[in-house]
# Entry
Amino acid sequence: MKIAVLGSGGWGTALSMVLCDNGHDVTLWSHSPEKAAQLRSSRCNPLLPKVTLPESLRYADDLSCVRESDLVVLATPSFAVRATGRNAAPHLRRDTVLVSVSKGIEKGSNCRMSEILVQETGGSCKVVALSGPSHAEEVSVRMPTGCVAAHPEETVARKVQDVFMNDYFRIYTSPDIVGVELAAALKNVVALSCGVITGMGYGDNTKALLMTRAMAEMGRLGERMGGSRLTFAGLAGMGDLIVTCTSMHSRNFRAGILIGQGRTAREAMDEVGAVVEGYYAAESVCQLAEKVGVEMPICRCAYDVLYHGKQTESVVRELMTRAKKQEN
Ligand SMILES: NC(=O)c1ccc[n+]([C@@H]2O[C@H](COP(=O)([O-])OP(=O)(O)OC[C@H]3O[C@@H](n4cnc5c(N)ncnc54)[C@H](O)[C@@H]3O)[C@@H](O)[C@H]2O)c1
Ligand SMILES: O=P(O)(O)OC[C@H](O)CO
# Structure
């Protein structure tokens, strides 16, 4: 199959390697000519220093590279998905399947990534969400990993399953694209929060409390917006929550630790030096929660810390002294 991967950060690069392993004809697009030239000449992405890029991988800096592609993977940070989709759209075939792997919610519109791509392609292409617990650093060295390909039409989700799946990258299908995409965006806000309490010096009890109660609020919002609670218990939900809240590979978790140690959100993101999606998602999540009338105290507190510089100690006290309630 002819495949274009748009976005040459850690994740776009790791997925290009999976697709090359699976025998596809893959082109990796970078948004700057310098980046494409660097990848082509060095066959190394500094974000994944342990791996050499496959000989068969091609590089591009022009979005006309999607022409004639059977499948196009959108792997830019979420803030760049609309512009990338819009600029690629005139070159796309109507039967090209788009695969969104970016984990976020658009600032302002609060759209999910697949909604953006449907809008930008005028609804002509099917858009599948691929998500799950998958650090690029581990996928690129072929560590066993599992993800979910979500689309309401089973045949479309299965097509993506067939393209990506191999003996180290296991793909399940799901009809619940709303749940999968919301889980992907929400877990980043929780991972940031988990980093904050870790940076403050709290231990495993506090982390387990935060993750479990955050899971409850993620499921509440997801269900109210049309997703299934079961999705939140699966790879795209609980799976990704575990991997992001417990790993030093996670940029969200690392940024949170720095904030918990006293840095501002801006200082933490600059120090991490890669996209920290949870920061952007926190604002949208609070707006969505308010709009649909769902209580999300943990995400609200994360927003207050990130956007209003609220003291982390007072936020923890606020959460721990909320009114008594039944668990479920
Ligand atoms: N890294 C992972 O392990 C991983 C795994 C699953 C999903 N994701 C998701 O994939 C998306 C991309 O993450 P990443 O880790 O590859 O990012 P990254 O931080 O490694 O790299 C971001 C890339 O985006 C490029 N970029 C910056 N501005 C751009 C623009 N305006 N248009 C296009 N590209 C631009 C940068 O040059 C850089 O190469 C995110 O939404 C992330 O949540 C990442
Ligand atoms: O590094 P993070 O925090 O963006 O997380 C990467 C992936 O989403 C993990 O599945």
